[in-house]
Structures are given as C-alpha cells and as structure tokens.
Structure prediction request, 453 residues.
Amino acid sequence: MINENFILETINMIKLYNLDIRTVTMAISLRDCIDSDVDVVCDNIYKKITNYAKNLVEYANEFENDYSIPIVNKRISVTPISIIGEACKNPDYVKIAETLDRAAKDVGVNFIGGFSALVEKGFTKGDKLLIESIPEALSKTERLCSSVNVATSKAGINMDAVLKMAETIKKAAEYTKEKDGLGAAKLVVFCNSPGDNPFMAGAFCGIGEPECALNVGVSGPGVVRAVVEDLGKDASLSEVANKIKQTAYKITTTGELIGRKLADKLGIPFGVIDLSLAPTPAMGDSVAGIFQAMGIEHAGAHGTTACLAMLNDAVKKGGIMASSHVGGLSGAFIPVSEDAGMIEAASKGYLTFDKLEAMTSVCSVGLDMIAIPGDTPVETIAGIIADEMAIGMINKKTTAVRIIPVVGKNIGDEVIYGGLLGKAPIMPVSKLSSAGFVTRGGRIPAPIHSLNN
Prediction:
C-alpha cells in the first residue's frame, strides 16, 4: 500500500505549503502501575513512561532528518489517571500530575495527555477527586493535558458532570490568570472521546488499547488549499472533492510510512493514523483558507458549513484508502486561536459563536480554543458544553469543548499564547441565562437510535 513515489511528491508540499506530521504520540498503558500507596504509583508511572519513551524523541528526530519531513510534536498519552489513582489509600492526584509532567520533561516530549476521567454515566470516587484536582494540577505543570468525557451516544449526557466541568474550566482559568487562563487551554470536555486520539489536549490511552502503541497525526491544510486553488474557479464541486481525496491519500501515505517505520524502530505496534487536518497560526496553513479557495469570501459566510462538510468527507475518503488503521478524530479541526484564517474571521466579526457551533456538526471535534469574557457565568459555560455534547450524542460523533474564560478581559480584547496555541479575540456569548436548565442535574437520556444492539 505504501508507494514511495508519493513521498517524493510531498517534498514541494513540505517546502511550500507547510505539510508536516503534526504529532507522533506514544500511547502507554499504566494499568499495571496501580498500587494502594500513591508514592509507589508515582514511582511506577515514572519508570514505565521513561522506559518506553526514552528513545521516542531521538528516533523521531532521526526520521525527520532521513525523510526531510517535519515531525512537529512528540507526545505521550496514558491510561485515564482517575482509574490509576483510585486504589490509593492516600490519593493525591496533583502529585501524580507532577510525576507525569516530570516524566514528560525528562524524555523530552511536548505534551503528555491522560489526566482524564470518563464520567458519562456517573462518577466514581476517583473521578471526583481527579476532576477537583484539575485546576491545581494544570497550574503546577507545563506539559500536562487533561480531558473529561461527559457524554456518549449510548449513555446520554451526564448533566451533573457538565456543570462540574464548567466550574472546573472557570477555576483552571482563574488558577492561571497571569497566563491568560492557559490552564483552560489544556483542558477539554468530550462527547464520544476516542481512546486512540494522538492530538492534545484530548489524548489518552483507552482501556481497550495495547500495552504501548504509536499513533500518528498528519496535517496539511496548506497543501489542500493549494491544490484547490490550482483547479481554478471553473472546477465543479465534484472535481474539487475528488482532488481533495487524491491529496489526502498522498498526505496519509506519508504519515503511514513514517509511523510504521518509527514504531518498528521503537519496538512497539503501530496504532492508528488520524486523518484530521490540523491548522496552525502560520499563514497559508489554514482550514479557513480552504473555504476561501472553494469560493467563500471568508470563514463565517453562508455556505461555510457546507464547505466544511465536503472537506471533512473528502479527507476521510481519501485518507482511509492509504491506511490500514484509521482512528482518532479524523477530519478537519476548526480551533479559533490556532488557525490564521479563523483568527482573522473572528476578529472581524465574520465568525460568530453560533456559526462555530453549527460548523461543529460536520467537523472533527467542536468548539475549540475559543476565548470568552472572564466574567461569563458558570451556568452559561455549562449550557455551551451541553449544546456541544448534544450535537455529538445525536450525530454519533466526537464533539468537544475547549473554551477559555479569560480573567480580566472582555469583548474587544485579545489573548496571545504563542506557538501552536496562537492568539484569539475574546468572543461574545449569549447574555441569556441557562441556569434553570443546567442546574436540574441528572442525565439527558441517550437518543432512540442508540438502541441498536
């Protein structure tokens, strides 16, 4: 299935259009690290991560040089930590968080994900303790990322967890207010979260995953935009979709080759390739730019959702033929702060919160990296999360919310994080109250089509 001639064709894509392997993420199961003593747990975790990942960065850099293909991020994901710490007689999730962060730093990876809990049907004691520790844990670490799954298409939406996560997001932003709420930027709330996702902040090693595996995420919005522009304005949408499929095939082939060879050298199984188009703040590396190449004046115009739906579908159709194991999120990301075109559209008022929500019904994830006023009520944030979870639940897809209530800032202000996190304008949210709804508690039942056994 691997045609190395395609690799040669990607050289111009790399040089001119920002094609890269966005991340190689080593998923490590920590289930055998459980102990009744938290100090033993921390020791087990540190030893296992540093043993498996000790060569990850070095080998990835070697392949980067050998193939002249940038591998932007090297990351680790681990078993949801709420499970690992639950058996401790003296549970200290912040201590475990700091251990994960230290291990990540010592092996040289960019981020480590898995400070996570799965609470779509309710909380265990470990889940509650982990969620309560998230704001402090994220404020005391540099590379740690956290995620909580609060809904699935099978279980419905845990509205108690939705409200709890809204409170947690507010606290995470407040604990890191001197960094414009950076803690909240490393925290994501999911519906239908996949256990083999290589992208942060939502990556974790699912319960059904092997002892260790390598998951790969490839990105190429700039490449897709270039090929669409080359078709010209007279090309039909059928021709555009077909060209995107062909391009996605070539991009995925590159990721599959590098991922398999790197996994072999590390002595671990190759897991999945995630077909997502992940943008960056760099000019020309924008999903919003693809919309413009298709004929939309700017992201946010009527027709944007249709463009995104076609793009998402074409990327999946092309990519799946190039890989034997596709997983993760797979589609197109629309993070406001991480996409130059989305940043511009939001800053000019072309892209509203409501339009973003509509677009999430057809994209990979959801409301991603959106900065909102710091005084936004917890109940409003809970309403935002509930809406996004409903889209995922009803459509049997992954959706997520990564939202940042920036303390001391309001509409018209801007936050700058730098790097892949980029910058974002503070976007307005509805002033209408959601409190009477989100405080009722309980669960929103799963839809009727979930009864498919």
Notes: The chain is about 45% helix and 20% strand. The two ends are 34 Å apart (CA to CA). The chain has a mean pLDDT of 91.
